[in-house]
Design goal:
The protein has helices at about 1-10, 25-40, 45-55, 70-80, 95-115, 120-130. By secondary structure, it is mainly α.
């Protein structure tokens, strides 16, 4: 779980733009490789390597990844749910039933948080709490 949490936090650190950026996964993995020891003192070297792997392979098609680990599938699905922001969320492309079940909630969360004024992250957190998605 710790690797998945860190992957959620750093998988896009290599992004140069919020648009198409096919190389950002590799750049994010390189960043993890260079900075893994400062991320979390409790992450072991194998966990840091797994984190870099997840970052590297979250962008290419599933078939391109040497191995579709549960952690990689989880991040790819979470990243897929985030596509709601760019009006490109297709639940059929999600890998797990759990992620597909969250597609409607992702759309609702995005829609409701967009209606709120102020800090967008605070709006998303407030809406997620109201929907029971955040404790």
């Amino acid at each position: 779980m710790e690797v998945v949490r860190w992957a959620a936090a750093v998988h896009d650190v290599g992004r140069l733009t919020d648009g198409r950026d096919a190389g950002h996964g590799s750049r994010s993995a390189e960043w993890v490789e260079a900075n893994g020891t400062v991320l979390e003192p409790g992450l072991t070297l194998p966990q840091q390597e797994q984190l870099a792997y997840i970052c590297r392979w979250h962008v290419p098609d599933d078939i391109s990844a040497p191995e579709m680990t549960a952690e990689l599938a989880c991040l790819k699905d979470a990243d897929g749910l985030d596509r709601v922001r760019i009006w490109d969320l297709d639940p059929r492309r999600l890998r797990s039933a759990a992620a597909r079940d969250l597609a409607k909630a992702a759309k609702q969360l995005f829609s409701e948080s967009q209606r709120m004024h102020g800090d967008p992250w605070e709006a998303a957190r407030t809406c997620a709490q109201a929907m029971g998605l955040w404790r």
